[in-house]
């Protein structure tokens, strides 16, 4: 089963969903805002792709964080703490199949490997 994690109003999420639909790849959408994200899931993702890949320092959420919180984002534990509290700072989408991260951000080549 493919799961796409993100927020519904994100253009990259919409692009990913349209691509998967066009290629008839069934998927489930996980909305961070409604469903949240567990610390355990973030830890698993960090082990697979690294916290630096997941943590989006170009996001609006990052820019809105106070400087003290931004200065804490120097290691996996701190990044997970921040991502747990501010899920919209996670780079979108995270695409997962059977518990394995296959893409972070829109990656057509990685998505093509799913269909």
What would your notes on this structure say?
This protein has 115 residues and is an alpha+beta fold. It has a single domain (2-112), classed as Glutaredoxin (3-Layer(aba) Sandwich), CATH 3.40.30. The chain is built from eight helices and four strands. It has helices spanning 11-22, 32-35, 39-49, 51-54, 60-64, 67-72, 76-85, 108-112; strands at 2-6, 27-31, 94-97, 100-104. It has a four-stranded mixed beta sheet, with helices on both faces. Strand 3 and strand 4 (100-104) form a beta hairpin. Helix 3 (39-49) packs across helix 7 (76-85). It is globular. The protein starts with a strand and ends with a helix. The model has no long low-confidence stretch (mean pLDDT 96).
Comma- or semicolon-separated keywords:
single chain, 115 residues, alpha+beta, Glutaredoxin, 8 helices, 50% helix, globular
Strand order of the largest sheet: 2-1-3-4
**Could you name the CATH class?**
Alpha Beta
Give me the number of helical elements: 8
* Morphology: globular
Task: Please give the largest β-sheet.
Answer: 4 strands, mixed
Beta-sheet strand percentage? 15-25%
| Number of separate strands | 4
Structure class: alpha+beta
The whole-angstrom Rg is 14 Å
Mean pLDDT across residues: 96
CATH topology: Glutaredoxin
Could you say what the CATH architecture is?
A: 3-Layer(aba) Sandwich
**Proportion of residues in helical segments:** 40-55%
Residue ranges: pLDDT <50 for 5 or more in a row?
Answer: none
CATH-wise, what's the superfamily?
Answer: Glutaredoxin
N to C succession of SSEs: EHEHHHHHHEEH
Q: Ends: how far apart?
A: 11 Å
Please give the domain count. 1
């Amino acid at each position: 089963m493919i799961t796409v994690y993100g927020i519904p109003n994100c253009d990259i999420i919409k692009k990913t969903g349209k691509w998967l639909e066009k290629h008839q790849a069934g998927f489930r959408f996980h909305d961070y805002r409604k469903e949240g994200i567990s610390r355990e899931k973030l830890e698993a993702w960090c082990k697979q792709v690294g916290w630096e890949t997941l943590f989006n320092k170009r996001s609006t959420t990052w820019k809105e964080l106070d400087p003290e919180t931004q200065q804490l984002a120097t290691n996996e534990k701190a990044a997970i703490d921040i991502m747990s509290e501010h899920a919209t700072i996670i780079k979108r989408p995270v695409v997962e199949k059977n518990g394995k991260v296959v893409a972070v951000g829109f990656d057509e080549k990685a998505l093509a490997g799913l269909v």
